[in-house]
Write a structure and sequence with these properties.
This protein is α+β, with helices and mostly antiparallel strands. The chain folds into 2 domains: 116 residues, Probable inorganic polyphosphate/atp-NAD kinase, domain 1 (Rossmann fold), CATH 3.40.50.10330; 164 residues, Sandwich (Tumour Suppressor Smad4). It has 8 helices and 18 strands. The strands form 4 sheets. Strands 6-5-18-15-8-9 form a 6-stranded antiparallel sheet. The protein has a 6-stranded antiparallel sheet with strand order 14-13-10-7-16-17. The chain starts with a strand and ends in a 5-residue tail after the last strand.
């Protein structure tokens, strides 16, 4: 018997999250585990409850989308405590990368059970620090992608809307944010090399996908001990519209205006010239404003039943 903490999101999956959470709790209990429901109705409250309980747990399980996975990372990162994921949200980028069942609760719980019996994947995370990192978690960890340019502005609007869901809301958010866009001025340091440039998209990727399956960095891997830094030159609004569909298959990386670099450490800050940068998002969650320092945290997370691609 294992002691398992569970955090559920009743609003995930277009309101079906409550039932999925109850199903997860029941299935884990039926398998003989001692289950502790740590859901507290809000991200900060659930985080604090999990932080208080984590020393007494054998595993933490989150039920929902990428926001719930992001919460779980803050509790389990760089600790022995493994994370179980029941992917049941409108965006499930982490589950895609980790080859976990999506919207199928019994299969997801079965993977967790296998993980508790020894099938565990150890993966890298991005680790974010800076004076403006959002509380309660600092440093902040992410599994997928940190966005800090037009991608962050789009994510900021997408986060505020409830319909449509999944990738479609990012299309709507793109159309909403384009009229407001001007090229950003950014100063970047990648593994000790510093430069300043105008840009449109700037991101740090630990895994290939974000935004409901957009392939911002197709060659990224959560097991290679590296991050990928992605930046574009200053693009026109028309160029952005033309490039956006290429994110679905990753073909944008062949555009000469796009630069992709492997990195272990990246810093991002506002330059004097150019539009102010929007607050950064990671795993679809607001994480804070610049200046930001992002480092790879190798082998920082143990995921139950995962099979990283």
């Amino acid at each position: 018997m294992s002691k398992v903490g569970v955090i559920t999101n009743p609003t995930s999956g277009s309101g079906r999250g409550r039932a999925w959470g109850q199903e997860t709790l029941a299935l884990l209990a039926a398998k003989g585990h001692q289950v502790n429901d740590l859901s507290r109705g809000s991200w900060p409250a659930s985080y604090e409850a999990a932080m208080r309980a984590r020393r007494h747990l054998d595993a933490l399980v989150v039920v929902g989308g990428d926001g719930m996975v992001h919460l779980g990372l803050q509790v389990c990162a760089e600790r022995k405590l493994p994370l179980g994921i029941v992917a049941a949200g409108s965006g499930n980028d982490a589950a895609i990368t980790l080859d976990l069942p999506i919207h199928h609760i019994p299969e997801a719980v079965e993977r967790i059970e296998r993980g508790l019996q020894g099938e565990v994947a150890t993966i890298d995370l991005g680790k974010l620090s800076g004076g403006r990192v959002e509380l309660p978690a600092s440093p902040r960890y992410f599994v997928a992608v940190l966005s800090a340019g037009i991608d962050a502005a789009i994510a900021g609007y997408a986060r505020r809307i409830t319909f449509p869901r999944g990738p479609a809301k990012y299309k709507l958010a793109t159309l909403r944010e384009l009229p407001r866009y001007s090229p950003y001025g950014v100063t970047v340091t990648v593994d000790g090399t510093t430069w300043t440039q105008p840009c449109t998209l700037v991101a740090v990727a630990n895994s290939p996908v974000f935004g409901g399956g957009l392939k911002i960095s197709p060659m990224s891997s959560v097991t290679d001990g590296m991050l990928e830094f992605v930046i574009t030159e200053a693009l026109s609004r028309r160029d952005i519209l033309r490039m956006f569909p290429q994110l679905y298959d990753g073909s944008h990386i062949h555009d000469p205006r796009v630069r992709v670099m492997q990195a272990r450490k990246v810093t991002i800050s506002q330059a004097v010239d150019g539009a102010p940068m929007p607050p950064a998002f990671a795993d679809g969650e607001l994480v804070g404003g610049e200046p930001l320092t992002i480092e790879v945290a190798p082998k920082a997370l143990h995921v139950l039943g995962a099979r990283p691609r």
